[in-house]
Design goal:
inorganic pyrophosphatase (n-terminal core), 11 strands, 11 helices, alpha/beta, 2 domains
Length: about 325
């Protein structure tokens, strides 16, 4: 079935002269890597076509990857729109996507909104970049890949999998990552851009370790309000990444970061877990995503406290019925 979809997507790409590629708002490494990687592959393969990367939302910490394009509205009328790594229409970082003649959705989140004319969704994948790597290898006799494109794709694979630690990483994931490395990924330069930190970031981490809270059953959480973000001069992306700092606490199988979003005046929630799923919890609080990695939104501190209580109850029930967790 998926081979048929991949073949159909290539047929659509080859039949259009103008192609627009977009991702989700508040882009992470997977959203940036998958869209920039596919854009580069298509530009190298089809230099006669007009391939555009169009998004309204950007990422400061991934600015080393390059910029975006702007296109006049008239381009959409006869264009193919490809949206990657975006589960629902409301999260697409291009409000004009609906004007395109046809829409292709490529995504690895649990299916909630099949908004594409063609929907290629594989929620067992660790990243959307894994799907783009698979798409390239399926059609490698017809598609061209450069070290730059392979680097974008590898970037998304390594970041969305937590350096290949998270749920969804399989032998196939590693084989696809290896195939991208074989295409000339500059690992030293990539990792220097991704993981080198300013000295002030270590002061922020110290603050985080001093302010982590842990519930009765082991939910680790932290709230970064507006004042804290201003104190440490944090971008929204940098504040959101704090959830990864909570993951190594023994006995804590759910960790939650609450980040005040000054643009929308709500509280953005990052949920992660080990062994047990938290996607249903995220859905209850206006979000969703993967089984063990999801996002949500709290519209008040009262709702934030309710989410913590629900997470603690969920974890307590899990621990009472399972053995072998750390």
């Amino acid at each position: 079935m998926n081979e048929d979809i991949k073949n159909l997507i290539l047929q659509k790409i080859e039949s259009y002269n103008s192609i627009i590629i977009s991702r989700h708002i508040r882009p992470d490494g997977d959203a940036v890597g998958s869209t920039m990687g596919l854009t580069k592959i298509l530009r190298d393969t089809y230099p006669e076509k007009h391939i555009y990367l169009v998004n309204e939302d950007f990422s400061d910490y991934l600015s080393f990857c390059g910029g975006e394009d702007t296109v006049p509205d008239g381009i959409y009328d006869g264009a193919l729109q490809i949206v990657i790594d975006t589960g629902t229409k409301k999260r697409i970082s291009n409000i004009k996507f609906v004007k395109a003649k046809e829409i292709i959705k490529i995504d690895h989140h649990i299916e909630a909104d099949p908004y594409g004319d063609i929907n290629w969704v594989e929620d067992f994948r660790s990243s959307a970049c894994e799907m783009i790597a698979d798409f390239y290898l399926t059609h490698k006799k017809r598609l061209k890949i450069s070290p730059e494109a392979a680097t974008y794709i590898y970037l998304g694979m390594v970041t969305d999998s937590g350096r290949f630690q998270f749920e969804g990483v399989t032998g196939e994931t590693m084989r696809l990552a290896g195939a991208m490395l074989d295409c000339g990924v500059d690992l030293e330069n990539l990792y220097a851009n991704l993981y080198s930190e300013d000295p002030d970031s270590f002061k922020f981490k110290s603050y985080v370790y001093d302010n982590i809270r842990i519930t009765e059953h082991g939910v680790a959480y932290i709230y970064l309000d507006r004042a804290t973000q201003e104190r440490f001069n944090l971008s929204f992306e940098a504040a959101s990444s704090v959830v990864s700092e909570l993951s190594g606490i023994r006995g804590s199988l759910i960790w939650v970061a609450f980040i005040y979003n000054s643009k929308k005046e709500n509280i953005r929630v990052r949920l992660r877990s080990r062994f047990l799923g938290i996607n249903d919890l995220a859905i209850k609080y206006h979000g969703g995503g993967h089984n063990m990695a999801a996002g949500a939104t709290a519209y008040s501190e009262e709702e934030m406290r309710a989410l913590i209580q629900d997470a603690d109850k969920l974890l307590g029930e899990y621990k009472s019925t399972h053995e072998g967790w750390l």
